[in-house]
Design a protein that fits this description.
Number of strands: 0
Order of helices and strands: HHHHHH
Protein name: Tripartite tricarboxylate transporter TctB family protein
Helix content: over 70%
Largest sheet: none
Keywords: Membrane, Transmembrane, Transmembrane helix
Strand content: under 5%
């Protein structure tokens, strides 16, 4: 059976996850706009929220229009373990932001993400995390008017 002729099989679980995330973003945007309509307060929040809601429309349409593909390979146990390891690394990253500082947490998380993703090139492992960390910390300092915890920078 050709993929174009395959019956539609909506991805309900994925649709539920992205809908819950979009609902949370929408609730947060409504709450923030209820408190203040000052552009200074909504400078980052409102465009980000509109971007998330726009992406939700695209992803939701894709979830509903998905065609069943019986020949599609399933995820292996190794791939599922890789995803769970990345989720755990992200949890540790969030937990470590205030404890070890944004700079150290970002650099370690980027390195862990590259290793979990399979990157083995030494130059990428040594150069990308610190350069990315410097760019993010510098961007935060330009955008956020108050200090945030850093360990080294």
């Amino acid at each position: 059976m050709e993929r174009a002729q395959a019956p539609r099989q909506p991805a309900w679980a994925e649709l539920a996850v992205v809908t819950a995330l979009a609902a949370g973003v929408l609730a947060y945007l409504i709450e923030a706009r209820g408190v203040s309509l000052d552009p200074q307060n909504l400078l980052l929040l409102q465009p980000t929220a509109w971007l998330v809601l726009g992406l939700w429309v695209v992803i939701a349409a894709g979830c509903l229009m998905r065609r069943a593909d019986p020949a599609a390979p399933r995820e292996s146990a190794g791939e599922v373990l890789r995803v769970l390891t990345m989720v755990a690394a992200f949890g540790l990253f969030i937990a470590g932001l205030e404890r070890v500082g944004y700079d150290v947490a970002i650099c370690v998380f980027m390195l862990a993400g590259l290793l979990i993703g399979g990157e083995r090139h030494p130059a990428a492992l040594l150069l990308f995390p610190p350069i990315f960390t410097l760019a993010v910390v510098h961007g935060f300092r330009l955008l956020i008017p108050y200090p945030f915890p850093t360990g080294l920078l």
